[in-house]
Automatic annotation (TrEMBL):
CDD domains: PBP2_OpuAC_like (cd13639), TM_PBP2 (cd06261). It is found in: Cell membrane; Membrane. Its main location: membrane. The chain crosses the membrane at residues 49-78, 90-114, 134-160, 201-227, 239-262, 303-322. It comes from Streptomyces milbemycinicus. Pfam families: BPD_transp_1 (PF00528), OpuAC (PF04069). This is ABC transporter permease/substrate binding protein.
Amino acid sequence: MPRIELGSWIRSGINFLRDHFQWLFDFISKVVQGMYDGVHDVLAAPNPLLLAGILAVLAWWLRGLVPAVLAFAGFALIDSIQQWDEAMETLSLVLVAGAITIVLAVPLGIWASRNRAVSALLRPVLDFMQTMPAFVYLIPGIFFFGVGVVPGVIATIVFAMPPGVRMTELGIRQVDAELVEAADAFGTTPRRTLLRVQLPLALPTIMAGVNQAIMLALSMVVIAGMVGGGGLGSSVFEAISSVDVALGFEGGIAVVILAMYLDRMTGALNQRVSPLGRRALAKQAASAVGGLKVLQWRPATSVAMVGVIVLALVAGGLNIFGGDDDGQKVTATANVGKGSTVKLGYINWDEGVASTYLWKEILEQRGFKPQLQTYDVGALFTGMAAGDIDMQTDAWLPATHASYWKQYKDQLEDLGTWYDKTSLEVAVPSYVKDVKSLDDLKGKAGTFKGKIIGIEPGAGEMKIMKNDVLPGYDLNGEYTLVKGSTAGMLSQLERSYAKKEPVAVTLWSPHWAYSKYKLTKLADPKGAFGKGDGIHTIGRKGFSQKQPQIAKWMKHFKLSEKQLTSLEAAIQDAGKGKQQEGVRAWLKKNPGLVDKLAPAGGAGAVAKGKQAGAAPRIGYFPWDEDIATTYLWKNVLEKRGYKPSIKQYDVGSMFTGMSAGQIDVEFDGWLPVAQKQYWDRYKKNLVDIGPWYDKTSLEIAVPSYVKDVKSLADLKGKADKFKGKIIGIEPGTGEMQLLKSTVLKEYDLDKEYEVTNNASPAMLAQLERSYAKKEPVAVVLWTPHWAYSKYQLTKLADPKKAFGANNEIRSLGHKSFPKKYSEFYGWLKNWHMTEQELASLEQAVQDAGKGNVEKGVQKWMDAHPGIVDKMAPVSS
């Protein structure tokens, strides 16, 4: 039987509609997008818990107290797993799609109930709409409306409408015919009969249809995440694409909570809007006794409305009048930092506190956003080496912190010395006679109760005391070095000094204690403490490249002993928790110091592009090279003042959306082979910006421990070894289609092997499992790919050239891109990456871990200073 080209006819019809009625689709798109934006603005504006309270009041009105409490708990859970914004996007989609569905479905149902011909005509159409797989509706949706919210809403309306139409028709047809005849007998017009008799009696059935329509809308909205619909659908789709169990479960549980809430509320709405429902509700409330009466009590509509309005006004008031109440507002005197965040760590030593809060104040005045956190010295150095802390100002080198510097110096930068020279010592009150040096402590343990009061056990001075000083002066068996904290040591000194009791404490210079108390620094004739340290500013590796202006300031930062001790004293006078107030008071007494320490002229801020403020829309596939380069360009563009937005798509949606102008640019066009079918179909609406990577290759790879398999021809007859499977990737990719249509047939493997469809992360997960067990496995791969640096793999040779010519990776854009973003277009035209650069970028993203792509990219950029100027040069 000859093939009927039904699909081709449908495609031609869709193309015809798109070509001749685009004005209509544009109008629909604007209306739907406007409705969505309005609803989303309302839902996204309030504080999450306040909106949860409003939704709980509605649940109380419709269902009772217990459902209200459960509703609030459910929405609070969504907020706590950081899916609130996505949930509100999904709820907005459902409400818009549900409202349009009801507006269309109910009149159609009424018309069908009153006209047998219309009912007969609608029935097969509704059957078609209801039984067609939901995914199919996305295809014409993106053809007519591009990618984003609108095609998701339209596809949802089509999918969710049938039950609304059917249940409306059924409800009206089930109204007792004698009641309708009685109404007619009394001279009631057909319109009034419909409104006053048929609809009220059919309302329970109609509301059941509304409930089903909304639930179907929710299920479809999640699927619409595949075409950029946003919301929880995008979370679930991203989780599937990356095999992220945690994200998938969190997105899924948020969907479940929304579904349960919408199902229960729409199901209960009938009791509030229909006479029969209100009568049943009143009967149920009257029959309740005891505690059940309280639980089943529901507020009147007016009371519930007042509650919702009050909460809404509170939410609006908080948004209008609320603000950051940290109480430490600083006006930037020169916006050098442009809001850039700098993480400062410090040890709870007085000079560390003083210098850190001094720089916090200075950086805020220069437009930065410093974040402060105190650490134990070991944790501070470890955190800096890991890149979690940007800078600290209290590294005592070369002696005190020598062990930490030796361990981590390859991951740190020495930004310079700001105080020189310090000294470490043991001190006693001056009223303690005959104790002038460490030698004098020998034999006097009874005077000091056998204790020397120390500080934090991880401090370098404590290690020197334990390893050098006590053994050097033969004090080990006589004295115990008490471990504690700097604050504890100073408290003990204050108590003992007030009572005139002998006490020996570990101290250092400079320190404000020497100005508050009369103390004797015990001499160190044997030099056990070593030479005096300098106090250094230390940054994490790459800090100078990331924040060159701060690094420059730190290299010239100096404080004298008088300045430092007076700053410490000002902070002490300000009191606990008021360090910055103390710094401000000190700066008022030292006018001009901020400008001296951090001159704003020649700030060295990253130059902005000519089209700074432009907001290009960038699409990407969940492929390693695309994720890495997309986030790289996002970082570079933001540094140039652009406001890029990025979103993940599958290959087909990407090309369709870009062709329709919904996406401006993407960086992973494998041409001329792998994505040829998409390029040929859409090229009239696209622009080839040019290659940035040359040459790629497509291949099948096996672990190197698999012997005697060096080429695709060697796979013949070895299906048992690989369990008859070649582990593939996304079925829509060009490589998979080429493999199935050409490569397997060329090597006579099509009947011997099955190519499994997977997401790329799933393929890599299978490779990792098999590699760990030393099991044979054949996977679909491509070059460049970081897997070749992680595993020892053999690229199977392709002597028959079945995979075709090598591809280049090219940047592709919508045809309007060169004019709309001319500066960005110029950058891309001249952008190139080497295999080593791309491999190291992908590896940095992998090393950063799931959800930390931006951190991995930034770490790579830190290791490649000047990359922003290289990729996006701007004239000064």
